[in-house]
Amino acid sequence: MGLGGVNALRAKGEDREHVTDAISFIRELRQASDLASLPVGRDVVVIGGGMTAVDAAVQSKLLGAENVTMVYRRGSERMGASRHEQDHATSSGVRIICNAAPVAIHGNGAVAEIEFCYTQDGPDGLTLTGDRFRLKADQVFRAIGQQLQDAPDGLALEGGKIAVTGPGRTGLPDVWAGGDCASGGDDLTVTAVAEGRDAAEDIDARLTGRPAEIPG
User: Fold this and answer.
1) N or C: which end of the chain has fewer CB within 10 A?
2) What is the pLDDT of residues 154-165, one digit of tens each?
3) Which residues are within 8 A (CB) of 181 and not within 5 positions of it... i.e. 6 or more apart?
4) What distances in angstroms separate CA 198 from CA 111, 139, 179, one per listed residue?
5) Which residues of the chain form CATH 3.50.50.60?
6) Residue 185 pLDDT exceeds 80
7) Burial of 48 by CB count in 10 Å (0-12 exposed, 13-18 middle, 19+ buried)?
8) Looking at the domain that runs over 5-142, which CATH code has it been given?
9) What is the spatial distance between Cα 83 and Cα 170, in angstroms, rounded to a whole number?
10) Which residues, in sequence order, are CB contacts of 160 under 8 Å at separation 6+?
11) What is the DSSP secondary structure assignment for residue 60, as one 8-state letter?
């Protein structure tokens, strides 16, 4: 089930046309039989600093966007995307702006500009400095994190994800969980595959009655 919900920007005007989530864009991209049929803006802004943000930004550039900018609210060292991914984005023609947060999205029906405020990350957390700037944008992608939606009743949660122990055991009998919807671990495909393997071995042990080996 993954993390199907996408966090909101909480910026005025984010309901304008052509402001969408990066996950949907990537899904459409992967399933498209003709990439030329995918609409892409001339000035694309991706808000976020993780691997999904990098993917959306790079793919937008490859699809023909003239200007693609990633904007992240903290410093580059806090980005979810690795330094390698950041370098990949910039070498693909993507501009990265750090320490800025969206405060308003302007336009007449559809997005035309995004207004940002510079941020400062200090002992009291992230604060807005008051200094603002605007970027032209005719397409905006939200990539600021995902959240669990519609978790089955009775499942205990931890940090907004399904709480698991050992090889993916949940608080419900005969229910296992793994991947990005489960607590702990990295939100990576290789991690999800490994957790699926561990859960499968534990399920097999439960069904056959043999002792289960719980990974450390």
Assistant:
1) C
2) 888 887 788 888
3) 1, 2, 3, 148, 151, 161, 162
4) 46, 41, 11
5) 5-142, 151-208
6) no
7) buried
8) 3.50.50.60
9) 34
10) 147, 148
11) H
Assigned token pair, 203 = 């399920």
Collect all residues with Cβ–Cβ distance below 8 Å to 185 and sequence separation of at least 6: 191, 195
Who contacts 153 (Cβ-Cβ below 8 Å, separation ≥6)? Answer: none
Whose structure tokens read 């009998």? 173
Q: What are phi and psi of 52, to 5 degrees?
A: -65, -40
Q: Is the dihedral of CA 60, 146, 77, 191 positive or negative?
A: negative
Q: How far is the C-alpha of 134 from the C-alpha of 102, rounded, in Å? A: 9
The sign of the dihedral angle between the CA atoms of 45, 134, 48, 106 is: negative
The CATH code for residues 151-208 is 3.50.50.60
- Distance of alpha carbon 38 from alpha carbon 34, whole angstroms: 8
